[in-house]
Amino acid sequence: MGCMVLKTKNSRDIWIFIVLIPIFLWLSLNFSGDRNNKSLPHSVLNKGSKGVSVMYEAMEELGYSVEMTLEKIENKDSNTVQIILTSENNTSFNINDKAVRKWVGKGGKLILLSDKWEFIEADYGKKTDAFYSLKDKQGSEYHYGKGNFIIGDSELITNKALARDTEGAYWLLKKIEEWGTSGIEFNEFYQYLDPRERSLWRDIPRGIKFTIYQILLLIIAIIFLKGRRFGKPIPLYDEVERTENEYIYSVASLYRQAKCWELALDNLYNDFLLECESMFGKSEYIREKWIVFWEEERLPRLNKAKELYSFISNESSKKNINSKKYLQQITYMDQLKKILIKRREGRWKILKKDSQRI
């Protein structure tokens, strides 16, 4: 019956994995792949909804001299129009930077588009125009020195926005015509700069992150499926080995708590005599003869053994004796018992070796 249950469980696990693997593969192919080149928003290379490839290609078709550049704005010719798009989390470009301000003042033309454009405030320039969509204002034009710049919403020229409305893009083209220019450049230098601290998890591609999530889910599923028990837990009763002569120690402990030192000593002495019988052999005269055997065997602590033997044998000496004397004799007895146990174990090891040789 147990074998049958195990076989059923294994079959069920196999079918679960057969179903899970295609699901993981489908999710990986459909969501982890960067099919629309969405890894870098607001790029001319991005043909997804947040890219600006449509605006770039349309300007080429209209005959504008347009290209993509990866250089700082202050290193560019002031006769060109520099179009810079930044995402919400990217604050690498600062329009109030001294070098940027100087470049605009010399006659540079700048179009800065951002997701959070309304929070960008220039410390210089005079406002000359603004663009309003059906919903709200989406851009402002400023004049400074010999140059001009626009701060506006990146949604003016994203692929998704152009599919709905092209008025914002036409407004930008009109301003470029008014400014006059030798060329238009989509400057993506600042898109690759990130002032935030580098993070391993943030820099990992989205596809790899999705794969890691899949692996974690698979591990959790395996732990859940394999960790379940077959049925109700069955208590396991282990045999507990009782301490040798524990009843003697229990009785002696009770006598000690009741301060019956003489009774406690007698009980422990009886246990000591049992150990002597194990060592020297059973004898009805073990109580009188153990000290003789001890001396014949040349066991250590002979003086303490004689003192204990004398104390036990002399009944009259036990009268009017304080507890310290009893405790001293109990200590001696414990030390002598350990000697007997050690010697007995040593003999057993020797016998065991001899039997193995035979």
Helix content: 40-55%
Order of helices and strands: HHEEHEEEEHHEHHHHHHH
Main beta-sheet annotation: 7 strands, mixed
Name the strands of the widest sheet in spatial order: 1-7-2-3-6-5-4
Poorly predicted segments: 1-7, 32-38
How many β-strand runs? 7
- How far from one another are the termini? 48 Å
Mean pLDDT: 76
Classify the oligomer: single chain
Query: What is the rounded Rg?
Result: 48 Å
Description:
By secondary structure, this protein is α/β, with parallel strands linked by helices. 51% of the residues lie in helices and 12% in strands. It is built from 12 helices and 7 strands. The chain has helices at 2-32, 53-61, 98-105, 159-164, 167-179, 200-203, 206-226, 246-257, 261-280, 286-296, 302-313, 323-357; strands at residues 66-69, 80-86, 109-114, 126-132, 137-144, 147-153, 183-187. Strands 1-7-2-3-6-5-4 form a 7-stranded mixed beta sheet. A hairpin with a 2-residue loop joins strand 5 and strand 6. Helix 9 runs parallel beside helix 12. The longest helix is centred in the last third of the chain and has 35 residues, at 323-357. The chain is rod-shaped. 21% of the residues are buried. The model is unreliable at 1-7 and 32-38 (pLDDT under 50).
Short description:
With 358 residues, this protein is α/β, with parallel strands linked by helices.
